[in-house]
Amino acid sequence: MAESSKAFVERLFAHRGALQAFFYRRLRTKSDAVDLVQEVYLRMLRVSDTDAILNPEAYLFTVARNLLTENAAVDRRQAEAADVAEADGMQALPDVPEFDTALDVAREVARLRVVLEQISPECCAAVMLKYRHGLSYQEIADRLEVSPSMVNKYLRQALSHCRRRMARLR
């Protein structure tokens, strides 16, 4: 039976390019696509009764879709684990090296502006009100007409995005 399972997966391996493209279109971190393709094939090797699968290609992409859901849940848990309520604004953002010239500072500010334009208007407003104007969560919530927990969520999303994008732009 193990040989049958191996042959089954080898036959499905012809779809690895389409599977990688499937992940690539749906992931924020594109480099994870190759790892997820490999995980799909590992899960396919664990299928005990391959004869029961009527449409192997559809099953392959169902496994891929389920893996995307699991991956998104892990990302959400990691983002929620970052407690921005207690983090100071400068500690929450990655350390910015000391620059010798105003030109380097201007470039860094330009990069940050680009990154901030990529987040939702709500997240951007929460970041500006918190770190530029020094407002509390309750004050931000009142201005944005949302709950303080929603402000916390906006800030977590924005800081997570800024960390990832600023690291890539260096």
Write up this protein:
This protein is mainly α and 170 residues long. It has two domains: 80 residues, Orthogonal Bundle (Rna Polymerase Sigma Factor, Chain: A); 81 residues, Arc Repressor Mutant, subunit A, CATH 1.10.10. Helix content is 73%, strand content 0%. The chain contains nine helices and no strands. α3 crosses α4, α6 crosses α9 and α8 crosses α9. It starts with a helix and ends with a helix. The mean pLDDT is 79.
Bin the helical content. over 70%
CATH architecture of the largest domain: Orthogonal Bundle
Mean pLDDT: 79
Number of strands: 0
Write the layout of secondary structure elements.
Elements (H helix, E strand, L loop, with lengths): L1 H11 L3 H11 L5 H14 L10 H26 L7 H4 L9 H16 L3 H12 L4 H8 L3 H22 L1
In short:
By secondary structure, this protein is mostly helical.
Name the features.
170 residues, mainly alpha, Rna Polymerase Sigma Factor, Chain: A, Arc Repressor Mutant, subunit A, 2 domains, 9 helices, 73% helix, elongated
